[in-house]
Design a protein that fits this description.
Length: 402
């Protein structure tokens, strides 16, 4: 087992509606000592895939697939330090913190009640996040827990960025506004980009592009988020793997009348059967789309063109509140691995002072401190995200009284 720094280890949990992703890591070094994912949680077919240290993953069938059983299994197999597991605490990804939470917090009864009150804003996510918190509390009531909110980083947005032009009662009574998501990733990569550039975050104006199955941008001015592309829900904004991104809300009435679809059916289709999947016809994997497009598949070419065009247009829009751009930062599965997408985007944004260094881009910036552009008024970087490490560091800091 690797040496544990003074802060101790942190258990990081991302509890979904049918899965639990977990990692045990040292917040000081970022080293993982245990990680994996439980799938089909809550069913008799639950299975657990575990990787310990640098060994090969091991798959286990669980006789009890409840959240409580999964969490108990993880806690029971933690590496020991002294008389027991060397855990400083458990950190949880929580999707929605509403307007209340502007930073990560230690979990107590009041915080749990608040997370529960935001379930109408994230009905698929917050209940699962709470299940993870409650499972840890039942198994280890003495263990401090921290909630790290996807929405918190964006709570610095000004009203001009987060308000919708809708009836006032919708905001005051029903909390209808733009919240933004992927905040933990945007916070991590903006801080890392500042370090790579050798400049204080408070002097930088960045656009961070988290591009994966879910996609969002953030305009980060002087270290804080001033705008983002996701809104009340994670469906707003960019074209994504299975989500539509921005559409005319008038389509709800149009398709309800013409196709006989309900609001629930339309919402589900826009979340799970749209985006790259709908356009390409080959699924939501950008690698498969790029391969099909290179082979002449017209739908795949269209999907790639739409994705890049909408992305470049949104990046340009983010600069409106920055007034200038120091760097564009790519992250996430697509952002970190698709040189083709990055190159196409940069080719559209020359008017912002951006350009591609083809060699550095092909190597994903790995030997140029993340840089994939030549010297110029604005730089482009590839910065791998690490939300688990960000959660672990917040957890260690708060558990230590910071």
């Amino acid at each position: 087992m690797p040496r544990v720094t003074e802060a101790g280890l942190v258990l990081v949990l991302n509890s979904g509606s049918s899965s639990v992703k977990f990692a045990v890591l040292d917040p000081g070094t970022g080293e993982r000592v245990l990680g994996g994912e439980a799938e089909r949680v809550g069913t008799p077919d639950a299975v657990l895939r575990v990787r310990q240290d640098s060994g090969d993953p091991v798959t286990e069938q669980l006789t009890d697939g409840s959240y409580q059983a999964v969490i108990s299994w993880i806690l029971g197999r933690l590496p020991s330090s002294g008389s027991g597991p060397g855990l400083a605490g458990a950190g949880h990804r929580v999707v929605h913190g509403g307007e209340r939470f502007t930073a990560s917090v230690l979990v107590d009864d009041e915080v749990i009640a608040a997370i529960r009150s935001f379930i109408p804003l994230a009905p698929l996510h917050n209940p699962a996040n709470l299940a993870g918190i409650e499972a840890v509390r039942a198994a280890r009531p003495d263990l401090p827990q921290v909630a790290v909110f996807d929405t918190a980083f964006h709570q610095t947005m000004p009203p001009r960025a987060y308000r919708y032009a809708v009836p006032e009662e919708w905001y005051t009574r029903y909390a209808v506004r733009r919240y933004g998501f992927h905040g933990t990733s945007h916070r991590f990569v903006s801080g890392r980009a500042a370090a790579l550039l050798g400049r204080p975050p408070g002097e930088l104006r960045l656009v961070t592009a988290h591009l994966g199955n879910g996609c969002s941008l953030a305009a980060v001015r002087d270290g804080v988020s001033v705008d983002t592309t996701m809104g009340l829900t994670p469906m707003e904004g960019l074209v994504m793997g299975t989500r539509s991104g921005d559409v005319d809300p008038g389509l709800f009435g149009y398709l309800a009348e013409r196709a006989g679809l309900t609001v629930g059916q339309l919402t589900d289709a826009l979340n799970t059967a749209s985006g790259l999947t709908a356009l390409s016809g080959v699924g939501n994997d950008m690698r498969a789309i790029e391969s099909a497009a290179a082979g002449g598949n017209e739908r795949a070419r269209l999907a790639l063109d739409v994705f890049v065009y909408r992305l470049a247009k949104a990046i340009a829009g983010m600069v409106a509140d920055l007034e200038q751009l120091d760097a564009l930062v790519f992250t996430g599965g697509i952002g970190e691995n698709s040189a083709d997408v990055r190159g196409r985007v940069l080719a559209r944004l020359g008017f912002l002072g951006l350009a591609e260094d083809p060699g550095a881009n092909a190597r994903h910036g790995r030997d140029t401190a993340g840089r994939i552009s030549p010297d110029g008024p604005a730089l482009a970087l590839v910065v791998p995200t690490d939300e688990e490490l960000m959660i672990a560091r917040d957890t260690a800091r708060l558990c230590a009284g910071g």
